[in-house]
Every structure is written in structure tokens, then in C-alpha cells.
Amino acid sequence: MPFPEPGQTVEDVVESEIAFLRHVIELHPETTEKPMVVGNCQAGWQLMMAAALEPEVFGPILIAGAPLSYWAGEHGKAPMRYTGGMTGGSWVTALTTDIGNGLFDGAWLVQNFERLNPANTYWKKQYHLYDNIDTEAGRYLEFERWWGGHVVLGGEEIQYIVDNLFIGNRLYRTTGDQ
């Protein structure tokens, strides 16, 4: 698993994505089509940020599992959006980054997402596994390995994400709304 460069920010990643797409376009001067991009979760909203800055380098964009407004949805049905207010802001993010010596272990994010539906986390998915043990074990293990062990972010990067997306909802809101 690659670790982020020290001091890497979300803006650095967005600029890299734009530079990469420009390079792909340069490698294929014979085509008028722009690259199609796919982003899941964090990559999805980072691609949307990049596309807003440089729309001319993007073809079709497919995003999956990338909510563009963390405050959208039914009132009272998204407990993650209230965590910042109930814990006094984003200091928990800074603390977990300090504990990780400047790196943020994505397992903390997974834990927050698991809290969105505790009945599924603690009961339903295990019940489904045991109820279908002959066919479900491989899928279950593959998903849990992927879900629980693939993200490490730099401190500045996760602090930006929490302050501007999860708490501030600044990707969705326009300047006039702030």
C-alpha cells in the first residue's frame, strides 16, 4: 500500500489528476475524444473537483460511492454529519493523525461508515454470510479485506476532507450559499 507524500494535499492530488489527463490527451493527438474517467468514493469527488477546474480535459465521468453533498439526504438519517458538532469539531481527526505519526489510518473512516447502519455492521451482513455459507464466504472475505485495509492519508489531506467536505459541505455548496 503506497503512503502519501508528506504534506500532500487534496489540491495536489487534483492537480496530478489534471496533469495525468493532459498527458493522456497529448499521447493520443489523433483522437478528438477526451478521456473517460471513473472514480469511487474519494477519487469520485476529487475527479469532480478537477473537472470543475479543467472541464476541457474530461470526457464522460462516472462516479460511484462518492456523495457530493455529505449533508444531503433525509433529515436525521445521516449520523456522520452530526459527529463534528457532537464532538466539538474536527479535533478527533487531528488526534488520530497525531497518533499515526502524521498519517491517518483509513480504518477510522471505515468505522464511521459502519456506524451509519449498525444493524448491518453487527448483525445483518454476518447473518447473510452464515445463511449462505456455501456461496458467500469468498465474496464476504474479499469485500472485508478491501473495505478494511486500503486507505492511508496524510494529516493535512484528511483534515481538509473532514473540514471542507464532511463538516463544511463545501464541495456541494456554491459560494453564495456559504
What does this protein look like?
This protein is mainly alpha-helical and 178 residues long. It has a domain at 1-66. It is 55% helix and 8% strand. The chain is built from 8 helices and 4 strands, in the order αβαβααβαααβα. The strands form 2 sheets. Strands 1-2 form a two-stranded parallel sheet. Helix 2 (42-53) links the parallel strand 1 (37-40) and strand 2. Helix 1 (10-27) packs across helix 2 (42-53), helix 4 (91-99) packs antiparallel against helix 8 and helix 6 packs antiparallel against helix 7 (133-148). 17% of the residues are buried. The model has no long low-confidence stretch (mean pLDDT 83).
Comma- or semicolon-separated keywords:
single chain, 178 residues, mainly alpha, two-stranded parallel sheet, two-stranded antiparallel ribbon, 55% helix, globular
Short description:
The protein has 178 residues and is mainly alpha-helical.
